[in-house]
TrEMBL record:
Residues 1-64 form the Carrier domain. It comes from the Bacteria. It holds the Pfam family Thioesterase. PROSITE patterns: CARRIER, PHOSPHOPANTETHEINE. This is McnE protein. GO terms for molecular function: fatty acid synthase activity. Signal peptide: none annotated. Keywords: Phosphopantetheine, Phosphoprotein. PANTHER family: FATTY ACID SYNTHASE, SI:DKEY-61P9.11.
């Protein structure tokens, strides 16, 4: 079963689903096949709590008695406080948090919230940020009924984390930490303020000086990949082609699914009416993309603290940049503890 889903011929009972390339989309397929084969309905999040075939076999034999809400995924269990809740990224599940989890101090717990891990029929639509935030806020309070709360959102997930913080504060709870990882502030009628031509040229020149000719070759390669992904995505939208020719175990299929989710999240950003936040916001900004106008300073009424991290956008969650990101998060957590 796992071999077919992951497209790997040999898997041992100790191999980890996540380490082998498993993600929320493939976990959803696995849950469906388990239900069909064993008549055992389980939450998608349980796949990430029992990621090896050995653990999964035990899970299937047991009666499902999940004590956590279906959107909840434990990424890292720490020794004490604080408990950091991470919100999923634009078009992805929680996979991008895994390198960060390895770099965080042993005391810190990192829990994920993502509707991608829920197979509930009434889960909120990804185009509605307010409903997504309400859904996560309820699930979060099932895990931790009282504050102080520590929230972290990557990219689009930062917008949801921001709205969750608004909900919790309105309920009278303390949000001690609201961290946004290179999150663009939603603007009316746009996902973010576009760069001017002068700013784009300046950005490219700066990156070329910083990274050399590899920057150009990587940009060209990335542009080709994006173009091919768009072609696949448009083909994928055809029901007949998708059913008959899509390789659902391939990375391309997963990438196309991510693109579909990303488009929905972009629509959500356009429709979201953002309000000022009474607390402090900690922004972890990709240093190689600092020309982007993130604009959170207008909304963080108690102040905006910016930490620059080397790399572009999601690169700051990858090695070696993620080590710096973890250090900055530790600094921010320490700062908010004494303020």
């Amino acid at each position: 079963m796992l071999q077919d889903i992951l497209g790997i011929e040999e898997i041992s009972i100790q191999d980890n689903f996540i380490d082998l390339g498993g993600n929320s989309l493939l976990a959803a397929r696995l849950v469906t096949e388990i239900e069909q084969k064993y008549a055992q309905k389980i939450a998608i999040s349980r796949i990430f709590q029992a990621p090896t075939p050995k653990e999964l076999a035990v899970l299937i034999r047991q009666e499902e008695k999940a004590s956590y809400p279906p959107s909840f995924v434990p990424i890292k269990n720490g020794n004490s406080q604080p408990v950091l809740f991470g919100i999923h990224n634009l078009g992805y599940g929680l996979e991008l948090y895994l390198p960060l989890a390895k770099c965080l101090d042993s005391d810190i717990s990192l829990y994920g919230l993502s509707s991608s891990f829920s197979n509930e029929p009434n889960k909120p639509h990804s185009r509605d940020i307010a409903n997504l935030a309400s859904y996560y806020a309820r699930d979060l309070q099932k895990i931790q009924p009282q504050g102080p709360y520590y929230l972290l959102g990557v990219s689009f997930g930062g917008v949801i984390a921001y709205e969750i913080a608004q909900i919790l504060v309105a309920q009278g709870h303390e949000v001690k930490f609201l961290g946004l990882v290179d999150t663009h502030c939603p603007q009316q009628n746009s996902v973010y303020k576009p760069l001017s031509l002068k700013e784009r040229i300046s950005s490219h020149i700066r990156k070329l000086r910083l990274k050399g000719v590899n920057y150009l070759s990587n940009r060209i390669q990335r542009r080709i990949e994006v173009t091919m992904d768009l072609i696949r995505y448009n083909l994928y939208k055809n029901d007949w082609l998708r059913e008959n020719f899509a390789d659902k175990t391939s990375r391309n299929f997963a990438q196309i699914e991510h693109m579909q989710q990303a488009k929905e999240h972009q629509e959500a950003n356009k429709n979201y009416v953002i309000q000022p936040y009474p607390g402090k916001v900690y922004l972890f900004r990709a240093a190689d993309d600092i020309f982007y106008k993130l604009d959170w300073q207008k909304l963080a009424e108690s102040g905006l603290i910016i930490y620059d991290v080397p790399g572009e956008h999601l690169e700051i969650l990858q090695e070696p940049n993620v080590q710096t990101l973890a250090e900055k998060i530790h600094l921010a957590l320490g700062f908010c503890q004494v303020n």
